[in-house]
User: Which sequence fits this backbone?
DNA sequence: CGAGCCGTTGAGGGGATTCAAGCTCAGTGG
DNA sequence: CCACTGAGCTTGAATCCCCTCAACGGCTCG
């Protein structure tokens, strides 16, 4: 069985250390535990499975798993950002969703189902690996965990449906503004967002990379994006909101 | 608290009996039980909650619930077809997903979350009402039910992501063909599919009703849709597949 | 019968694509 | 050192697909 644990690099060796797949996690002091799946568990319930939880580091553009693979683990995003990709029969790549800090990804594995999409790290990303068997065993004894699992799944569904209405509908400019709104939810502490490659923006909005480039350039000129660097930008929240109001009127 | 149980009619009184909301269900002989959520339960486990399960009839275009409502029940689709709608801030309506026979809808209610979308019956539809409290109580004792619930949720997520890649990407003709493929999955026993109003096709594909009309007319001329009636059509599966192959090349 | 909804079709305009050229920048190797 | 290369981004010009606006026909229903 391929992949999944030993992450696959896609780009040329582009900095960042390789994954350190087997570092045992110490969950207690974890600053995202309140957000994460196991937040419903008490320390004493969490303790016995801590040895099974591994902390993983993925470089930007590293694939976490492939569509169709039957994985053996789900992951909690500890920090960073993950995108989900599909390739249509016409060969068109489409990005269908994003997951950030605290989100659960790959939960298909907990049901012994193949992964529905490819998961790719957008930026250097830290994940907690949750082996399927362990989660299933726990969920049997802890109804709260079963409920938390379903809640995560429901959240992902709402994300996906919102993606249809916001990112896949209307004129391209509105779609781009809505995308920025979502990226803003994953901004770093200095308010900078991950700015995808133009081709990737195209794969999110279903436009060509040229159109994506024109959209970014224009928003930069308008001051919605005061600073545009490679793979990173700052967003003027006020102007973004204003631009959206105009676009929706 | 409004709505939800006493279904809301949107169209003028257009035939079909009003909902009969309190008919107790007899689940044992139900022909879709193998498909449905409670398929994981034995008869003896199912028996005590049967009095709580009501069978509902919804006419075409009847709303089952509204987005934002905090409902008290999920529903299994016994027969018929349900669409999920959202309205964007720009006032644009968008249909984000379909659910048919055997599918679970409104599972947000089981988590005490507001419904994420409006659910509307596409055709006369029969539903089984599953009160949230009952399901939750059962799930505590029956891990298999908890698992089944999560599986339904995951299925819905895969539907939604597929909707992004198939129905919301690429040229309008391809999107229309992909939509027909999906409608075909809910065809009646004579191979006829529900053909939405042109405006509704538009809300699914994110095109105008005029474009939707042109797409339908052209597919009819090409023989992909040998018979087009109001709200119903037959599909030539072979020609559909051929047209898709061409569109994807 | 007139009103309203639904569907169809045409003509014209606009937004996104396609095709193309040129730019910056990092990495490579002569 | 610096040409060479390729990836990513930008911009322009022409084309095309879809939207907009409009007119019209069929149908149901008050």
Assistant:
């Amino acid at each position: 069985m391929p992949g999944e644990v030993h992450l696959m690099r896609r780009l040329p060796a582009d900095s960042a250390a390789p994954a350190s797949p087997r570092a045992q996690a110490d969950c207690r002091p974890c600053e995202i535990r309140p957000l994460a799946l196991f937040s419903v568990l008490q320390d004493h319930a969490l303790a016995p499975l801590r040895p099974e939880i591994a902390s993983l580091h993925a470089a930007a553009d590293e694939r976490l798993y492939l569509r169709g693979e039957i994985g053996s683990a789900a992951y909690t995003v500890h920090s960073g950002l993950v995108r989900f990709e599909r390739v249509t029969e016409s060969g068109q790549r489409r990005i269908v969703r994003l997951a950030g800090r605290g989100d659960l990804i790959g939960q298909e594995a907990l049901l012994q189902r193949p992964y529905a999409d490819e998961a790719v790290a957008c930026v250097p990303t830290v994940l907690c690996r949750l082996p399927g068997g362990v989660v299933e065993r726990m969920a049997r004894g802890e109804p709260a965990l079963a409920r938390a699992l379903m809640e995560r799944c429901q959240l992902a569904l709402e994300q996906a449906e919102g993606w249809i209405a916001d990112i896949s509908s209307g004129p391209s400019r509105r779609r781009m503004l809505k995308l920025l709104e979502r990226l803003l939810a994953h901004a770093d502490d200095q308010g900078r967002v991950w700015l995808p490659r133009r081709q990737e923006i195209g794969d999110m909005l279903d436009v060509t990379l040229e159109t994506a480039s024109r959209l970014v350039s224009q928003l930069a000129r308008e001051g919605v994006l005061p600073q545009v660097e490679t793979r990173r930008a700052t967003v003027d929240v006020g102007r973004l909101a204003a631009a959206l109001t105009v676009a929706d009127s």
Q: What stands out?
A: Chain A touches chain B through 46 residues (CB under 8 Å). Residues 197-199, 209-210, 213-214, 216-217, 230 of chain A lie near DNA strand D (CB under 10 Å from a C1').
